[in-house]
Amino acid sequence: MKTHKHLWEQFISPENLDLAARRAVRGKRGRRSTRRFLRHRAQRLEKLREMLIRGEFTTGKYRIFTIFEPKKRNIYMLPLYPDHLVHHALMNILAPIWQNLFISDSYACIPGRGLHTASQRCVAMLRKNRYVLQCDISKFYPSINHDIMMKIIRRKISDPRILALLHDIVYSTEGQRGMPIGNLTSQWMGNLYMNDLDMFVKHNMRVKNYIRYCDDFCIFDNDREKLVRYKKILQEFLARELDLRFSKAFIKNTNEGVNFIGYRHFKNHVVLTRAGAKKMRRKILNLARHPEISPNSKSCIAAFWGWTRWCCCKNMRRRINEMVEQNAPPEFAHFFKMNFN
Length: 341
What we know:
By secondary structure, the chain is of the alpha+beta class. The protein has helices spanning 8-11, 14-24, 32-39, 41-53, 80-99, 115-128, 140-143, 146-154, 160-170, 184-204, 224-242, 274-289, 295-308, 314-327, 330-340, and strands at 63-67, 73-77, 131-137, 210-213, 216-221, 246-253, 258-260, 263-265, 270-272. Helix 2 (14-24) packs across helix 5 and helix 8 runs antiparallel to helix 9 (160-170).
């Protein structure tokens, strides 16, 4: 396997740091930290470059807070400067290298492969097969083994200074496990970590109908007993090679529908899962009761619209519009209707 040795000069180039800055502040210009950075942008980028050249950069202190949707998780936040800029600068260089490793049926955090593409592919597999093995990894990001992560990274990256930065980021949390949810690098590293499973499923097990989104994956087949064997093989591989275990792994008939990436897939149509629809209604009701036409409310409504446009939910859209009309001022209700339909 080819390894990439000479990445440092490309990484610290002013052009790459400038691109990293533009990507890091995208959608965040209203924040105080972003405005503070932008006031002295050129000087800070030059200072960051000097810091990297002298080997003085280390991961900053995380600010940790807890969210409860869709489940309880700790989110780790780093400062925009210098950490987010360094992460973006790294991924500008590393993302094209790692993306070439990923199989076509891996969809998380990969440009050009959104939820809609994954949903269509799931339906195509479902239509051809009677059974599905659905699996999910228990506490995936907190369970990633630091040593295994670095071993996987070294297969493709051999530039010592880039490796030193990646080592600092990987081991920036206490203990031997855990990728901080909230880091741009964690999204890509998580995909890289699970790519070992993809390679095993595709090349060792010779499975054709396999699809993965982050730590949630499905295998389709017409032979139920084969899926029973696959389940045992995958359980052993995950424990042995990646130090992971299942939170769920079950086999069901595809006629019952397949819950994947927030949708429930059937052979002839796709709907939102009950949990997803309930969460959306709750969030929209909260918007309606605290109406404010702001960039945040616009982005939330756009996300809801994008989530529902690819599935059968005409009646739910109608009920949501009625709910907003009943609970929000006319101005906000009109704004919502114009952006949600």
